[in-house]
Amino acid sequence: MATTKTKGGEFIIKETLAQDIFIPEQWTEEQLMMKKTCEDFLEQEVTPHLDRIDSQEEGLMPSILEKAGALGLLGISVPENLGGLGFDFVTSMLTTEVIGAGHSVAVALSAHSGIGTLPILYYGNEEQKKKYIPKLSTGEWKACYCLTEPDSGSDANSGKTHAKLSADGKHYILNGQKMWITNGGFADLFTVFAKIDDDKNLSAFIVEKSFGGITLNPEEHKMGIKGSSTRQVFFTDCKVPVENLLSERENGFKIAVNILNIGRIKLAGAAIGGSKNTITQAVHYSNERIQFERPISKYGAIRYKLAEQAIRVFASESATYRASQNIEDAIHALIEGGMDEAKAKLKGIEQFAVEAAILKVHASETLDYVADEGVQIYGGMGYSAEAPMDRIYRDSRINRIFEGTNEINRLLIVDMLLKRAMKGELDLMGPAQKVAAELVGIPEMAEPDETLFAYEKKMIANFKKAILLVAGAAVQKLMTTLSKEQEVIMNISDMVIETYVAESTLLRVEKLVSVKGEEACQVQLNIMRSYINSACDKIWINSKEAVNSFGEGDELRMMLMGLKRFTKQEPFNAKEARQAVAQKLIAENKYCF
Q1: Given 149, 403, 498, 510, the catalytic residue
Q2: Is 403 a catalytic residue?
């Protein structure tokens, strides 16, 4: 477990040590038992019934959620005194990952136990928690979260749903319309965001279906996740008792933002689970499908696809559990400092909001890549509804939209980093100035370091210099107009994402080698080197595009020379590395890392 306290976003300016991160090879027996419980649940209650689930058979999804509740899967991180299992954040991430292979059930379950339950668990008063959380933990009541409206999606605080205090002061009268409400068709409890009177910011309310004044549109017809209930919800003079205001008045937007931070990293976990399941099915098929008298897994083009799928998933997973443990450590430190547990959980996750956004983007795009190549590996059968890739492909696509679109998340990554720098929470300017000075200085001629990982560590350090160079120059050159330069922000964001994921992969493999030895980790070394090799190319392209858009003359030439230096790499045989990864997958006949 991590011992050094690290702050969110600090990875750009600070070296992280391998022994200070958590890696998935460290699971305890208890955590692996929870993983097995989730796998058995999918195998028995979900996978055999996917067609019935997608046809939205009456009562089926609620009954599946109740079975999950009976196993404790709806209350993984709910305290035991409120009917949950009381596990830590990292364990909740592991169960989220496994359930992530459950298609529409994964969406319904995560909406219920995440955005449906957590606002009350983290922001509710004692009476609200005692009244609602035990029912939600067992699945007796199902929950949903009502934020989005027809005219307010990414701009959530512009919602028009409003609440007025009744003449006798006992109820808030709620009126408005919400859309894309997951679990809306069968929910007993709604967390609803609305503005009271002429307030600038949203407030949040706990609304029971039995309060009345709630009507639903028919189920939405969607591209994928067809088994998940998605409805528009209308509130017409819905009477909500004043004691069902959640937290303070006008604190709703803060609640929504913080719950989305949790949702983002949880979505990354689920996307990794979906990706692993997809790779396993693709490997099975490639070993069974015979063409030209050989299994198609014997062909280089197929092996490329299998290896590249696995490399990206391994990298995404490395970063996700690194951040999950950082969050867990931050929560513990806050509790030890005297903070209330619910507040500590929110604050711990908020500290790593940058990483949560990075992971949401990377893991959802990894899943999309894996699903797309899965279809391709299946060939004609990939396009048939008789084979699994049809559902996988359609279901994967929503993840780049859920929990804030990937474009919004990319903008947020840079915005949050710069805001933290402005507040003095993160010293980006000092290191950025050092990098700028390094450009005009004479490069140091150090003796080559032949030790294992020295080369890769130098590359990661250079990636960070490239980020500081481009971001520093962009802030200086564009100043107040930077927020409008979305393409430049996206370039910087992609550099940040690739650097964090590449570093996480390196740290995981370094830690693994320290435990198992270099010989036993040859395939993981190939995965790590392949990922860093690709990340380097992406960082060069994004950095070049960014500075070309705002730099000019000698200054631009100087920056491009510096970026070339920071993205320089030794020749690397990516084909050979990928072949080794593919051979391991093919021999094991599954995703095996």
Answers
A1: 403
A2: yes
